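Moderator note: this is an archived Q&A kept for reference. The question asked for a predicted structure of one protein chain; the sequence and the answer are reproduced below.
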Amino acid sequence: METLFSEIAVWVRAEPLLFLGLVGLGPALLGLALARLTGGSAAPSRGAPESRPEPPAARAAEASEASRDAAIPRRVEPTVFAEPVEASPPIAEPEAPVVAPPPVAEPEAPVVALPPVAEPESRAVAPTPVAGHEASVGAPEVPIAPPAPVPEPPAPRARLRDRLRRTSEALVGRLGGVLGGRQVDEALLEELEEVLFTADLGVATAESLLDRVRREGRGADGGVVRGLLKSAIAEKLAAVQPEEDVFATRGRPHVVLVLGVNGAGKTTTIGKLAARHQARGRKVLLGAGDTFRAAAIEQLQTWGGRVGCEVIAGEAGGDPASVAFDTVKAAISRDVDVAIIDTAGRLQTKKPLMEELGKIARVIGRDLPGAPHEVLLVLDSNTGQNALSQARLFTEVANVTGLVLTKMDGTAKGGVIVGLADEFRIPVKFVGVGEGIEDLREFDATEFVDALFGEDA
């Protein structure tokens, strides 16, 4: 053993580089050398495979290879002798979780813009509530706008001929039955007299028409007599044709006093007149002077609200002259264009009526000289010849400047207009032929006679 160490020491001193090269072979060669030196007496490490003695040829080959490697300079590193380490049992690696591959997004199809298609407009319809189901809590309520009202087209103006049909049948229709195919003689004149006197024309007017036929139509046929009567009636009505515009004003405010018995249609006529003046761009004020009827005050206030006019009213049973005075004062202060004042229609006695109307006229003219500028008498055509009596009374106590014949569309007694024209010669301003505001029509003598005889367009 000592000899071997001595030889190694001599060899190391002689070949230091080779020794360093051999040292670089690692612990394996060193372990082989130690095993050779110890003669194989050392026990193998636990868990390590048994080493077998190498044959001489292998050792010679190793020595030769070592000699060649010794010639290569190597980096000398300190040799670290590690203690034998027991082999640890293999550690089972945890299985990796199986991860599902992410879904592969399919390519989106290109969006092709289509041309807009016009859809018909539809109105929003509110859903019908279902019994037993409550609305969702917190759900916003979507307001549904109501459909815009569609204005109705104005009704076509009715022909006056249609509105005067009953009066036309009562007068002209009966004339046709008497005159048809006959010549004028005494028998025909007697029949004609009966027709005229029962047509509510009034005694004087019926007699004047009959005299005209006797003078100019004796021996003529029925067609000529019909023409004579139409011409005579047209002349009488032409005499009461207004010479100026029935809506002309003669002051500011223009004050209109309206007379008439209860039920003649005074309040309705006032409301329609107010609407017609307003349609001409005028500011209108109404005065409820018929204080003896609470219903008259309420009716006038209703009309005021309907047409958009202010109404001056007092207490029921109050002084009509006081209401008329307040109306004129308000019209002046409020810069009103037209003031229309209603009056009471009592006809119990003549004296109280004269005193009342006289007082109203004086009060109105106190603050507005020249007022009232217009005094209209409203007569109900249904009363027939009684309208003649009313006209006589009112014209005696007031300066009536115009007549209004109402309810001409519902009566067969409309012939009274001819008697009024013949007796009083007061201009007929309006005729009422319906319920609408436009049915209060300006009087036109030619149009009226043509409609009465069924010859209007």
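Archived answer notes: The mean pLDDT is 79.
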